[in-house]
Amino acid sequence: MTKFYADQGWGLIETTLLGMYAKCLKEMNRSEDYIKVLLKLLAKSSAAERVRLRRRGVTALDDGDGKTASVDISLDAQHLEEEVGVDGCVKRIVALSLEIEEEITTPMSHFWDNIAVDPYPRHLDDRDGFEVLVKMRYLLEEKMEVQELRVRMVNTIGQVKEVWMDALEPVTMKRGVVKVFARSSITIPGSYIVDKIILIANKLHFVHEPIAKSTPDTALGLGSTPVAAVPIVKKTKLLFYPAPRSLVAKLEVPKQIHLEHMKAIELVLDPGKNNVTKAELRLRSATAGLRLMMASVKFLEGSDAASMGDKPGVVNLKGLSPEKKVRFRLPYTSENELTELALKVEVDYDTDNGHFFYADGLTVPVVLPLAVNVQDVFRPNALFSRFQVSTAIPDVPLRILKASLEGSRTFGACSGVGTEGSMVLSLPRIF
Fold first, then answer.
1. Sequence-separated (6 or more) residues with CB below 8 Å from residue 385
2. What 3-state class would DSSP assign to 33?
3. What are the two backbone dihedrals, phi and then psi, of residue 119, each rounded to the nearest 5 degrees?
4. Alpha carbon of 122 to those of 128, 168, 183, 251, 309: distances in Å?
């Protein structure tokens, strides 16, 4: 009956019937249905407040610098001409929600308006991580105590990653604009969009998804984005990058390369200004055909704070003081000739300020700066060889100062004109 009157535009009759229905459910101790009916009544009350704000011209949130973001509000005010009496309902349903078995999920848009996340993440002064400012307009007259505020960020490039950000303490919702900071101790550099905002009051979950999805959720909870929402995605991108004081990992090529030795790269872990008490570093290959020889790792710096873990691909760290780097050489083999090498690095670490997580995909060019082509001509009593030395990287100059040709136990060597002394190659720094 209430749905019929709502569809026909009889808002006052619908509200009256919902009030009677709620009283009956309360007497019958049907807490879950009673909460759902009260949520409908509260939604009608907040809709009435939204109409009043629209009539007054309040359709945007002031972001603090005089600029506003316009919000499209489409609502039929004819259904909500009468005020809905819902005094004390908010406190009642939040308390009753503890008695039900399953959570009740409701769209945030029923009770909040102008929900937005500031597009500029902020670094923290005393610890690693980020925080973002969440702004919204609470439409109900009665206060609501919210225990948790959670924001899910989804990476827009590459493999799907998500970062959850949480408010540090419970939030009291009061009518008007509410601003809350959500913080994360996870550092995964990249470009992100806001995928979901959740407010939790006992077993009441209020959910807001800024970008509507055109397909059902996947196993990871992510659906495809419609074409119409692409401009919105571009405007709401957030760029996460490590702060200058935070822990970071870098991938480098050794300064000295010996062609007769196994190929290797060097990984540098810089704790920044953190006092790392304990950490676990995990490495994985992100290049096809690449094999990391973790058993042959050699620590070049910070060997007193690092050791190989029991699990393959894991390096244990402890007692890493601020600005004390750990550098180790990692040999590798590859099925194909690689010009670029990619690794995935994950670090779980504890500091004086708590537990943190860092992850990043690192790449480094590994092509040798020199290419040597040898052409051999065999004669009955002699072997003539022509050496052609060139640069493997375009636009890199090469100058040969001196060259020499030495013999071996099997072959004697006779060098030509201009090859006396030792061979020295002059190359600029290219890494």
1. 374, 375, 376, 377
2. helix
3. -75, 5
4. 11, 15, 9, 26, 34
User: Do residues 344 and 292 lie in contact, with contact meaning Cβ atoms separated by under 8 Å?
Assistant: no
Closest alpha carbon to 91 in 196, 207, 188, 173: 173
8 A C-beta contact, residue 329 and residue 298: yes
**Beta-sheet strands, E only, within 159-260:** 162-167, 171-173, 176-184, 186-187, 190-201, 204-208, 238-240, 248-252
Q: Is 413 helix (H, G, I), strand (E, B) or coil?
A: coil
Buried b (16+ CB within 10 A) or exposed e, 271-290: bbebebeebbbbbebbbeeb
Asked if residues 197 and 156 have their Cβ atoms less than 8 Å apart, the reply is no
User: What residue ranges define each of the domains in the chain, with the CATH number in brackets?
Assistant: 2-240 (no CATH), 248-365 (2.60.40.740), 370-426 (no CATH)
Strand partners, 402: 424
Nearest CA-CA partner of 397 in 359, 366, 363, 428: 428
Q: Give the total residue count for the chain.
A: 431
How do the residues of the chain divide into helix, strand and coil, expressed in percent and rounded to 5?
A: 20, 40, 40
Residue partners of 136: CB distance under 8 A and separation at least 6: 61, 108, 112, 113, 114, 115, 116, 177, 178
* Phi, psi (rounded to 5 degrees) for 20: -65, -40
Please state whether the predicted TM-score (pTM) of the whole model is above 0.85: no
pLDDT tens string 39-92? 888 888 888 888 888 888 765 554 443 343 333 333 333 333 344 456 778 888
Q: Report which residue type is found at 150.
A: R
State pLDDT tens for residues 201-214. 999 999 999 876 54
